[in-house]
Amino acid sequence: MDLLSGIKAFVTTVDQGSFSQAARELGASKATVSKQVAGLEDHLRVRLLHRTTRKLNLTDEGRLYVERARKILEDLEDAEDAISPSGAEPRGRLRISAPHTFGAMHLSQVLAAFAERYPLVHLDIEFADRLVNLVDEGYDVAVRISKLQDSSLIARRIAPVAMTLCAAPGYWQVHGKPSHPRDLGAHKAIIYSYLSTPGEWQFREAGKTFSVKVGGNLTTNNDVVLRSAAVQGLGIFYGPQFIVSHALYKGKLETALEDFCADPLAVYALYPSNRNLSPKVRAFVDFLVEWFRHTPDWEQTESTL
Questions:
Q1: Residues with Cβ < 8 Å from 173, sequence gap 6 or more?
Q2: Which of 39, 66, 83 is the last residue of a domain?
Q3: Residues 185 and 269 in one domain
Q4: Are residues 27 and 9 in the same domain?
Q5: pTM, whole model, 2 decimals?
Q6: Residue 112 and residue 109: Cα distance in Å, rounded?
Q7: Do 155 and 288 fall into the same domain?
Q8: Could you give the CA distance from residue 153 to residue 272 in angstroms, rounded to a whole number?
């Protein structure tokens, strides 16, 4: 049998949910696709799919095989891209991981514009705040906001992200604005758990970094909850500016201790260093750099999340 055709038929059937949809995707007949999958099962000597009149379900063996099969197809596609002429048009599935709130607020327009420019690229993006393993999980690119640590990944700096400390005007009226970070011990902190040291905020003075312990009654990794709590006067927020930028722009929050805030973070595009950079990855990373080539005007973007 043609093993590669069987693998393509199997993966496409799983992705599309039926032999009929897979046949349309592959430009083949339903009978052909079904026969190719059956041939693959015969070759492997295991059943990959449970077939019923209503739907298809993966067997335990099928669940194990499908991700490895998908990776085989992606590696073949990358191999073809690697030897294609440098001017070849980017194409194929591009798997991207990006932070949830940043992605929803600031990448939606980017993705739409990229898709319009490169119609042969299929964008498959997961918005999640967890740190993915690009190689093990099969991602092509990750968008991350951080101070970049040593890594086996290649990183391209996309845009700066300033740190900011702020609270609602009403909170400052009641509690007063601190004049130095050491005054924060008398205040309620809204703690962003994705900071490297959530209960110890990092500041700079005279070129040196120092920590201040803070406390409060809300700790969360959810950007929307953080911003809402700060606007409602629950306490002081300290973190990446893009989370609260529109609220600052509208006057719902006011900054303090501007001269002490830690060095900016940055938006990075990361991709595995042990693979040839395919045209689709290169195109996407270059597009991000082009889009954010000027310091982003985060404050003009209002989140509806």
A1: none
A2: 83
A3: no
A4: yes
A5: 0.65
A6: 5
A7: yes
A8: 5
Per the CB < 8 A criterion, the answer to whether 215 and 189 are in contact is yes
Largest CA-CA distance found in the chain, in angstroms, rounded: 77
Clarify whether residues 101 and 43 are in a common domain.
no
Half-sphere exposure in the Cβ direction for 44 (13 Å, CA)? 21
Residue ranges making up the domain that contains 172: 163-260
SS3 167: strand
DSSP 235-291: -EEEEEGGGTHHHHHTTSSEE--GGGBPPPEEEEEEEETTS---HHHHHHHHHHHHH
Q: What is the pLDDT along the chain (305 residues), one digit of tens a residue?
A: 688 888 999 998 888 888 888 888 888 898 999 999 999 889 989 999 988 767 788 898 989 898 888 888 877 876 766 566 555 688 888 999 998 878 887 888 899 999 999 999 999 998 887 777 777 787 889 998 877 665 667 888 888 888 999 999 999 999 999 999 999 989 999 998 877 788 899 999 988 999 999 999 999 988 889 999 999 999 999 988 888 988 999 999 999 999 999 888 888 998 876 555 788 888 999 999 999 886 555 555 554 44
Report whether 219 contacts 193 (CB < 8 A). Answer: yes
* DSSP assigned state of 292: T
Q: Which residues pair with 197 in a beta bridge?
A: none
Q: Choose one of 25, 53, 83: the last residue of a domain.
A: 83
Name the residue among 53, 99, 241 with its Cα closest to residue 163. Answer: 241
Report whether 75 contacts 264 (CB < 8 A): no
